[in-house]
Each structure stands twice: as C-alpha cells, then as structure tokens.
C-alpha cells in the first residue's frame, strides 16, 4: 500500500472526551467546532495555511479580545479529517494513505489550502499522492471506497471518475502482460519481480475473472459506473457478464441461500440486504447484462427471472428477462424452466403463462432468422439454417418434456395445453413420442374431457412419426379415441409392409450373387426367409385386427343412425297428433341391435 509521511514534529495534541487540545502550553485563542467535537487551537498556524480559515477569523474577530469560535460542520470528512488538517498545519507527523487521502483532498479544497498560503500545501500534497494511488490497483479500490463518505465533493474534484477510469483501464488490460497487485480476501497480495526472478511468494496465473472479487466490495452505484467504464473500454461481453453474475450471487440472498451476504450499500456491515435493496440491485443488473446471445448462461437468467418474481420486480424487468431467456431457449434445461407460480390466486402449480411467453419470443426470433431468400444460398446461410433446425428441434423436445411435467396438474386447462403444444411446427418433431407421452399423461389426469376435445388433442401428434414402441403402446391405449387407434394400426401395418418390401429387394440381390457367395449365402437366405415368414404372419394378424376394428366401428355408426331415424319418426308422429298415438300407422319398430 502506498504511503506518504508528512510533518516532522512529535505528537502535540491530546483528546479529552469531546475536546481536542494542543499540548504546547500556550493558551488557545480559537475554537473550531465540528459536530460534537471542539478543537482548541491557535490562529497563526491555521490562517497561514488556509484561505477559508483566514477569512472566517477576520469576519469573527471582536474588539473585546474574546475567544474566536468557528463552526465548520460542513467540512468534508468531518472531525476526523480536520484532525489531520490541524496536524498538517502544526507540522506534526502523520501518514497519508489511500484510506484518508480522498477525505483530506476534499477537506483541503474546502479550506482553500493552496500553494498561495504556503509552499507544498495540503492541496498539492494530496493531489500528488492521488496520482501515485491511481497507479496501483489495490490502492485505487481502497480510495474509491472512501469516496462514499465525501461523494459530492469527490465528484466535484473528479476523484471518483479518475478512480473508475484507472480501474477500468487495468481491468481491460491483458492480465498476462501486466502484473497488477491483486487483493485476496481483502488483503494485498503483491509479489516483487527483479530481472524475471520472483523475490516473494510465487504468483498464481491470472485468469480473466481475476478482478471480480476485488471490485465486488463497491456499492451498487459505483459498481454500475465501473461496469459501464469497462464496457466502453472494449472488454469482452463474457467477462462483463461474469462480473455481474459474481456480484448478483454475492448480494442477492434469494439466489444463493448458502452464501453469507453483506449489505450492498454498506459493504462492510455484514447485514442482509432488505428485499427492496435486492429488488433494486437485481433490476440494475438485468439492465447491465450484455444482450448478446449465449454470453450469459440461460440457467442464471432463469434464476434471475425466478428471483425477480419472488421480489416482485418491475414488469419491464421481468419482460426483459423473459426475452433474454427466449433468445437462447435451446440452451435451457427442464428443471430451470419449472418456475413455481407465486401468489394465492394462482391455479396451476407452475407458471405456464411465463413459459408460453418465453416460447413465443423464441419462435418469433427463429422465424425472423429463417426468413431467407429462396434463391441460391451461400454456405454460411446453409450452416445457419442447419443450426436453426437443430435449435428448434431441441426446443421441441423441451416443450414436450415440459408438457409431460405439467400435464398431471388438474387445473391445467385444455386450451392452454393445445396452444402450447401446437406452437411448435411439425417439422421440428422428427419423432412424435414426446408429444404422445404428454398427451397420454394429460388424458389420464383429465378423464372428463369430451370426445371432441380428445380428438382435438390427438391431432397434435403425427401417428406416422411414432416409434415402434410408442405405436405398440398407443394401439392398446384405451384413453385414445378409436379413430386414432385405427390410424396407429394402419401406419404400423404400412411400416411393416415397407420393411417386407425392403427384405424382398435384398433377397433378390442376394440371389443374383448367390453363385459367388456359395453356402454362406444359402444359409443367410434361409434365415432371411424365416424372418420374412414371421413378418408376413405379423402383417396378417394386424390386418385381421384392423378389419375387425373397422367392422365394429361401422356397426356402431349404423346402429347410431338407426336410432336417430327411429327417434325422428317418433317425434313426427307425436307432433301430428299432439299426443302419443297408439295407431298402427304411427307405431315404429325399434331397430335391432346386432
């Protein structure tokens, strides 16, 4: 840590309660009052260094020779800073450090202690020492932290901006080329190097996140300005995002309950920040996060979104986070998307509306990126198109898994399920097993759905894209409408016929080269013949089952039509007579049920 010793005299002051006196033996002729503290001093040492004190003494001097009393309650740094000012005026030894130089610089400016009132006055001494402080990373951070106590004066003298610019320049520099002293757990860790030979402890290789911990002790306003400065300095978006993630995890307890957190405004206090402070910090971090896709982890963004809902952050903050998650939804995992509904009037266990908004944003971006010219495309456009297809396919699998997870909720309404499932285009689902599983779970948890609703929900899947295992399950699923089961059996039969045709084609090719292959080909052909026979038997069984189900279905339709005709004739007879008639002409024989 930088250090400058001023003065040469031994200690000449003593503190007695709220009084601060000079031990020179001469009676005091001036009293300076700062808050509850009183300084009993002498006029000459003060007025010879301070323009303001000289002016105030001249204005307050009385002809009766009474004691001069000055009120300096507005002095930057308060009584502690004025104590050092008095020592400087009396030539008493004291040390100028990064922890007191800012307050002394502001106090000296306030008291007009320029070189007009003595060579190497306090203004020039503190200004020169500040330049030395700015050359050191750790000292600059310490000085910047003390600016909080005299913020308005430090801003006026541009001390804050100079500290931030110095830190930003060092943070943006290549850590491999520069050897800045770095703080470790609040302590300096400086290693001297002479001619390439380390004279102290061996330094650890510095990574891009070496400055995260050091600057995390800054208050939110100063930290925000530092982040803006490093962004303007050309720092990579990934490093900026990493610093903000580190800061958020440190000061928002709801994001990491196992960490010990300190107050954001008073970093040394160790008290847990209030929900209002956490909400303000979270909203600021969301605004500062880089907007590029993939720079910030999707998992962290979803944690921010969940915390924002718990802290009741502003709607604009939540919309911002939903948009950021939607931009990189293909990088999310299911567990992070299961955001609980917060409140007492909610219906579903999870916030399905939030997921719907995130998905809509992703699809909007995907459609915009896919709107390329139908003419000849360059290689880069083809690569982007393949990446886009892979991205939406991953999102489709994610949506199907999400629907399977929330489907057992009895309060999950049918229109919401239908809207969420149909948002994914059909080409994004190469296999329909995922959506079939979600539909099956939903039908099981909602047995009161009407036949029309069951038909509508089953249209969300393509039976032709079901795997063999899913087709076998669907063919025996009593919760599915009969039409869907027949369709599944039809496509399974069609798939088997296609497989048989392929086997026959292979068999013919093998017969053409059987002479060259010899006995091994004969054995393979016999084995393949047995497989073909087995498949033919399976096809025959499926055809019988399909025909049987079609006949039953047709019988049900015919029976329903006959009953409709019977009731229609019955109602016509009743309308003609005005009452039920027993005439043979109006008697209708009910249809026979087969």
UniProtKB/TrEMBL annotation:
<keyword id="KW-0175">Coiled coil</keyword>
<dbReference type="InterPro" id="IPR043454">
    <property type="entry name" value="NPH3/RPT2-like"/>
</dbReference>
<keyword id="KW-0833">Ubl conjugation pathway</keyword>
<dbReference type="Pfam" id="PF03000">
    <property type="entry name" value="NPH3"/>
</dbReference>
<feature type="domain" description="BTB">
    <location>
        <begin position="28"/>
        <end position="98"/>
    </location>
</feature>
<comment type="similarity">
    <text>Belongs to the NPH3 family.</text>
</comment>
<feature type="coiled-coil region">
    <location>
        <begin position="532"/>
        <end position="559"/>
    </location>
</feature>
<feature type="region of interest" description="Disordered">
    <location>
        <begin position="574"/>
        <end position="594"/>
    </location>
</feature>
<dbReference type="Pfam" id="PF00651">
    <property type="entry name" value="BTB"/>
</dbReference>
<dbReference type="InterPro" id="IPR000210">
    <property type="entry name" value="BTB/POZ_dom"/>
</dbReference>
<comment type="pathway">
    <text>Protein modification; protein ubiquitination.</text>
</comment>
<protein>
    <recommendedName>
        <fullName>Phototropic-responsive NPH3 family protein</fullName>
    </recommendedName>
</protein>
<feature type="compositionally biased region" description="Polar residues">
    <location>
        <begin position="574"/>
        <end position="588"/>
    </location>
</feature>
<feature type="domain" description="NPH3">
    <location>
        <begin position="209"/>
        <end position="495"/>
    </location>
</feature>
<dbReference type="InterPro" id="IPR011333">
    <property type="entry name" value="SKP1/BTB/POZ_sf"/>
</dbReference>
<dbReference type="InterPro" id="IPR027356">
    <property type="entry name" value="NPH3_dom"/>
</dbReference>
């Amino acid at each position: 840590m930088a250090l400058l010793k001023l003065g040469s005299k031994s200690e000449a002051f003593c503190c007695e309660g709220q009084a601060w006196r000079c031990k020179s033996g001469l009676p005091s002729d001036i009293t300076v009052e700062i808050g509850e503290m009183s300084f009993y001093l002498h006029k000459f040492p003060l007025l010879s260094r301070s323009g303001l004190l000289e002016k105030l003494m001249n204005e307050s001097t009385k002809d009766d020779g009474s004691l001069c009393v000055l009120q300096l309650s507005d002095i930057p740094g308060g009584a502690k800073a004025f104590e050092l000012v008095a020592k400087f005026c009396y030539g008493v030894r004291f040390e100028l450090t990064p922890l007191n130089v800012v307050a002394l610089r502001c106090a000296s400016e306030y008291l007009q202690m320029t070189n007009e009132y003595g060579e190497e006055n306090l203004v020039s001494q503190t200004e020169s020492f500040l330049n030395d402080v700015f050359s050191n990373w750790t000292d600059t951070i310490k000085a910047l932290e003390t600016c909080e106590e005299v913020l308005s004066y430090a801003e006026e003298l541009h001390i804050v901006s100079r500290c931030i610019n110095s830190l930003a320049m060092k943070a943006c520099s290549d850590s491999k080329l520069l050897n800045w002293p770095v703080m470790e757990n609040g302590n300096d860790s400086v290693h001297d190097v002479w001619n390439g030979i380390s004279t102290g402890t061996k330094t650890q290789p510095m990574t891009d996140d070496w400055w995260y911990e050091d600057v995390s002790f800054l208050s939110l306003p100063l930290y925000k300005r530092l982040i803006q400065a490093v962004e303007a300095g050309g720092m990579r978006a990934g490093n900026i995002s990493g610093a903000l993630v580190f800061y958020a995890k440190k000061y928002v307890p709801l994001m990491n309950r196992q960490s010990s957190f300190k107050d954001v405004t008073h970093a040394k206090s160790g008290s847990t920040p209030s929900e209002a402070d956490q909400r303000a910090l979270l909203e600021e971090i969301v605004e500062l996060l880089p907007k590029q896709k993939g720079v910030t982890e999707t998992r962290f963004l979803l944690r921010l979104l969940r915390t924002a809902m718990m802290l009741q952050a502003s709607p604009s903050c939540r919309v911002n986070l939903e948009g950021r998650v939607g931009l990189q939804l293909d990088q999310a995992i299911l567990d992070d998307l299961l955001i609980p509904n917060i409140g007492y009037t909610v219906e579903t266990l999870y916030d399905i509306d939030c997921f719907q908004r995130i998905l809509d944003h992703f699809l909007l971006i995907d459609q915009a990126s896919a709107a390329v010219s139908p003419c000849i495309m360059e290689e880069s456009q083809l690569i982007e198109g393949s990446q886009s297809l892979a991205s939406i396919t991953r999102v489709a699998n994610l949506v199907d898994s999400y629907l399977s997870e929330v489907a057992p909720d009895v309060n999950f309404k049918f229109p919401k399920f239908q809207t969420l499932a149909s948002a994914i285009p059909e080409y994004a689902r190469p296999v329909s097993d995922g959506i079939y599983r979600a539909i099956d779970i939903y039908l099981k948890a909602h047995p009161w759905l009407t036949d029309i609703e069951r038909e509508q929900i089953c249209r969300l899947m393509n039976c032709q894209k079901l795997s063999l295992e899913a087709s076998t399950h669907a063919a025996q699923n009593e919760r599915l409408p009969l039409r869907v089961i027949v369709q599944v059996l039809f496509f399974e039969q069609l798939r088997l016929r296609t497989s048989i045709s392929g086997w026959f084609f292979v068999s013919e090719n093998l017969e053409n080269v059987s002479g060259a292959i010899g006995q091994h080909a004969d054995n393979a052909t016999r084995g393949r013949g047995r497989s073909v026979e087995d498949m033919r038997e399976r096809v025959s069984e499926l055809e019988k089952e399909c025909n049987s189900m079609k006949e039953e279905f047709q019988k049900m339709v015919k029976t329903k039509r006959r009953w409709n005709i019977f009731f229609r004739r019955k109602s016509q007879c009743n309308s003609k007579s005005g009452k039920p008639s027993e005439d043979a002409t109006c008697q209708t024989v009910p249809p026979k049920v087969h």
